[in-house]
Amino acid sequence: MRFSLLTLGLAGLAAAKPKCTGLNAAIRAQGKEHVGSALTLRDEPLENAILESDLEIGAVTPENALKWAYTEPARGAFEWADADRHVNWAVEHGKDLRCHALVWHSQLAPWVSEGGFDNATLIQIMEDHINGVAGRYKGKCTHWDVVNEALEEDGSYRKSVFYNTIGEAYIPIAFALAAKADPHARLWYNDYNLEYNEAKTAAAARIVKLVQSYGVRIDGVGLQGHLVVEETPTQSVATPDQNTLEGALRQFTDLEVDVEYTEIDIRMNTPATPAKLEEQARQYERVLASCMSNDRCIGVTLWGISDKYSWIPYTFDGEGAALAWDDEYNKKPAYKGILRGITSA
């Protein structure tokens, strides 16, 4: 009898002890699809262990490998080695695969931006590129960022070669071509600074309605989530409050499309301090909580695993410490903030 009581007591303690979990396992337990990460394959065992863990990461977005400059550096001359390597890694590891990005003004092959093509020729170039890339990975990409960053901060269209030559119709044309090239992939518009629920957010909602008005499928809007803990030289406004974040998501879900935070990092002026890291954790928490509050927010993707390889310090001098693991792959307070946000539902 004593043994039985002792056994029961130990069993009770075991039941009361929180189960070990990870970010992806936690969000899936709440009915969402994934926590994902940007993917750049490198010889980094600690990073690879996190990426491979289904408890932590359930989706990947190739950070650069699928962009136009690398897949079609010369007209009709596709280069597949790096793209194949990233796509095959995702498939072999059973990850959702967010493919990124078919039509974007940046990291665009110079022959496109400097070619001086007329309307019909540029549409044909878009068609050939989308057929080539999306067609090659048909059935492997679960999502495609079809058009990326088509807007300026004031909500006007970015004066890219595509807009200047074709006009706003290039956007629904790109979605129609992508839907034909890969009928099963979910098709997304993706942009930054949509989280603030201002003019750019409203303009992105107009893009959704534009594509829909052509009778073309658009499945979701990606809010990139490149945010800041505090005012920095490159961003004057810190991460919005939760009501603002939730309102931004509703701008799109009210149009019957899904949403995801697709490239989250929350940077700060460096060096980091304990106070800044705790504030960063609170901001991650409310970003995740805003997603959890919306039935059509399918999940989140972090723009990398470790601060060691984040793009932020290389792009924004004096800024960094933006991710959930530090340079040594230790979990930062941000990691716990993400978990708190997930379990807030």
UniProtKB/TrEMBL annotation:
Recorded GO CC terms: extracellular region
Signal sequence residues: 1-16
Any GO MF annotation of the entry: endo-1,4-beta-xylanase activity
Pathway membership: Glycan degradation; xylan degradation
Domain GH10: 35-341
Top-rank lineage group of the source organism: Eukaryota
Keywords of this entry: Carbohydrate metabolism, Glycosidase, Hydrolase, Polysaccharide degradation, Secreted, Signal, Xylan degradation
Protein name per its UniProtKB record: Beta-xylanase
Provenance organism: Verticillium longisporum (Verticillium dahliae var. longisporum)
